[in-house]
């Protein structure tokens, strides 16, 4: 395993991550269960003002208020995946506003959502969670209007966020074109590392790297995206890189080819995956998406696991015309945003996804 040995002594005993059932998978309902539930519902009400609804599994809903203003709305909350309560709050905030950034919007307002064991929990921990979230939202320029809290045996925290975007400048997951290249703005593997943390296997330097990435807003990435004339985007979160790429492929009626060797991984991810460190969310993602993938056989198993690993506060996956890719990469790098070209958009094929080495 090189510099990151699973057999090394564990880091300081975890705290918050030991209080939840599924650190590393954000306690998300498996995609196949969601599909079954939502498929049983009657079609949602439609309005010409509803520019983006639930049909394409996009990152947020978009509602047109006027010829020059549309609202972007989203909600996200989850259990802790790190032990420091301040960092957890900041990560939850960065994750919640990311959906607005992925739609090409600017987040403006937030309502907090909090579940906390009031009888047994430490108020100092709660205070730090809320403070971390507030500081991250302040950095994003978002006003907190209030929120709602309930008693719960598990800590859960997040926000409902409202943003704004010009109706003609919405970036959806449905606009990818043949020949577009795919740019990813953060390395993947957060779920695998968070699972290693819960098992007491994660060295502190890797914990710090993972935490720093999750706390980083997608604000600069979104600004570069908006300035570059891209065709489609999504943020990579609970369904993993391939799950969110499939959403683009289906919504755009295209096939997406991911170049697995080009996908950046956080340090230690490949090694932990080779040791079988994976959350239940990763396995449910893989089961749900496997029928939609054509593999070329050259992608090693640890990398296959990383490609379906559920992310928290992941980067943007952007479909950009090949002629504009270089300009987008330059803008991202000027803003100190990680950027890698990880695939391409093709005419629709036998399956929505292809993975090649």
Automatic annotation (TrEMBL):
<keyword id="KW-0418">Kinase</keyword>
<comment type="similarity">
    <text>Belongs to the selenophosphate synthase 1 family. Class I subfamily.</text>
</comment>
<keyword id="KW-0067">ATP-binding</keyword>
<keyword id="KW-0460">Magnesium</keyword>
<feature type="binding site">
    <location>
        <position position="235"/>
    </location>
    <ligand>
        <name>Mg(2+)</name>
    </ligand>
</feature>
<dbReference type="InterPro" id="IPR016188">
    <property type="entry name" value="PurM-like_N"/>
</dbReference>
<dbReference type="InterPro" id="IPR036921">
    <property type="entry name" value="PurM-like_N_sf"/>
</dbReference>
<keyword id="KW-0479">Metal-binding</keyword>
<keyword id="KW-0808">Transferase</keyword>
<dbReference type="GO" id="GO:0000287">
    <property type="term" value="F:magnesium ion binding"/>
</dbReference>
<dbReference type="GO" id="GO:0004756">
    <property type="term" value="F:selenide, water dikinase activity"/>
</dbReference>
<feature type="binding site" description="in other chain">
    <location>
        <position position="28"/>
    </location>
    <ligand>
        <name>ATP</name>
    </ligand>
</feature>
<comment type="function">
    <text>Synthesizes selenophosphate from selenide and ATP.</text>
</comment>
<dbReference type="GO" id="GO:0016260">
    <property type="term" value="P:selenocysteine biosynthetic process"/>
</dbReference>
<dbReference type="Pfam" id="PF00586">
    <property type="entry name" value="AIRS"/>
</dbReference>
<feature type="binding site">
    <location>
        <begin position="147"/>
        <end position="149"/>
    </location>
    <ligand>
        <name>ATP</name>
    </ligand>
</feature>
<keyword id="KW-0547">Nucleotide-binding</keyword>
<dbReference type="Pfam" id="PF02769">
    <property type="entry name" value="AIRS_C"/>
</dbReference>
<dbReference type="GO" id="GO:0005524">
    <property type="term" value="F:ATP binding"/>
</dbReference>
<feature type="binding site">
    <location>
        <position position="99"/>
    </location>
    <ligand>
        <name>Mg(2+)</name>
    </ligand>
</feature>
<feature type="domain" description="PurM-like N-terminal">
    <location>
        <begin position="58"/>
        <end position="165"/>
    </location>
</feature>
<feature type="domain" description="PurM-like C-terminal">
    <location>
        <begin position="178"/>
        <end position="347"/>
    </location>
</feature>
<comment type="subunit">
    <text>Homodimer.</text>
</comment>
<dbReference type="InterPro" id="IPR023061">
    <property type="entry name" value="SelD_I"/>
</dbReference>
<keyword id="KW-0711">Selenium</keyword>
<feature type="binding site" description="in other chain">
    <location>
        <begin position="56"/>
        <end position="58"/>
    </location>
    <ligand>
        <name>ATP</name>
    </ligand>
</feature>
<feature type="binding site">
    <location>
        <position position="59"/>
    </location>
    <ligand>
        <name>Mg(2+)</name>
    </ligand>
</feature>
<feature type="site" description="Important for catalytic activity">
    <location>
        <position position="28"/>
    </location>
</feature>
<feature type="active site">
    <location>
        <position position="25"/>
    </location>
</feature>
<feature type="binding site" description="in other chain">
    <location>
        <position position="76"/>
    </location>
    <ligand>
        <name>ATP</name>
    </ligand>
</feature>
<dbReference type="InterPro" id="IPR036676">
    <property type="entry name" value="PurM-like_C_sf"/>
</dbReference>
<dbReference type="GO" id="GO:0005737">
    <property type="term" value="C:cytoplasm"/>
</dbReference>
<protein>
    <recommendedName>
        <fullName>Selenide, water dikinase</fullName>
        <ecNumber>2.7.9.3</ecNumber>
    </recommendedName>
</protein>
<feature type="binding site" description="in other chain">
    <location>
        <position position="99"/>
    </location>
    <ligand>
        <name>ATP</name>
    </ligand>
</feature>
<dbReference type="InterPro" id="IPR004536">
    <property type="entry name" value="SPS/SelD"/>
</dbReference>
<dbReference type="InterPro" id="IPR010918">
    <property type="entry name" value="PurM-like_C_dom"/>
</dbReference>
């Amino acid at each position: 395993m090189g510099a990151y040995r699973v057999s090394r002594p564990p880091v300081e005993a975890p705290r918050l991550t030991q209080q939840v059932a599924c650190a590393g998978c954000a306690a998300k309902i498996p995609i196949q269960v969601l599909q079954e539930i939502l498929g049983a519902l009657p079609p949602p009400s439609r309005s010409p003002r509803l520019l983006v609804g639930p049909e394409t599994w996009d990152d947020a809903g978009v509602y047109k208020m006027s010829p020059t203003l549309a609202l972007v709305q989203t909600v996200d909350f989850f259990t802790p995946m790190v032990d420091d309560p301040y960092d957890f709050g900041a990560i939850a905030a960065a994750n919640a506003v990311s959906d607005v950034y992925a739609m090409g919007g600017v987040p403006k307002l937030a309502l907090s959502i909090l579940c906390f064991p009031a009888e047994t929990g430490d108020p100092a921990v709660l205070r730090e969670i809320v403070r971390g979230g507030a500081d991250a939202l302040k950095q994003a320029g978002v006003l907190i209007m209030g929120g709602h809290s309930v008693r719960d045996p598990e800590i859960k925290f997040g926000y409902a966020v409202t943003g704004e975007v010009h109706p003609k400048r919405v970036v959806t997951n449905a606009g990818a074109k043949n020949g577009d290249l795919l740019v990813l703005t953060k390395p993947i593997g957060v779920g695998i590392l968070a699972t290693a943390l819960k098992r007491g296997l994660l060295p502190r330097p890797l914990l710090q790297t993972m935490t720093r990435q999750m706390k980083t807003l997608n604000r600069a990435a979104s600004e570069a995206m908006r300035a570059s004339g891209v065709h489609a985007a999504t943020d990579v979160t609970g369904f993993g890189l391939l799950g969110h790429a499939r959403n683009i492929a289906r919504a755009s009626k295209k096939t997406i080819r991911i170049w697995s060797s080009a996908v950046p991984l956080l340090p230690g991810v490949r090694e932990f995956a080779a040791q079988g460190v994976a959350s239940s969310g990763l396995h449910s993602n893989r089961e749900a998406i496997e029928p939609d993938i054509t593999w070329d056989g050259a992608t090693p198993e640890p990398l296959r696991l990383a490609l379906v690993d559920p992310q928290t506060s992941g980067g943007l996956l952007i479909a950009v015309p090949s002629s504009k890719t270089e300009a987008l990469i330059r803008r991202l790098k000027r803003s100190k945003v990680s950027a890698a070209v990880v695939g391409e958009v093709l005419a629709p094929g036998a399956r929505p996804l292809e993975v090649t080495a």
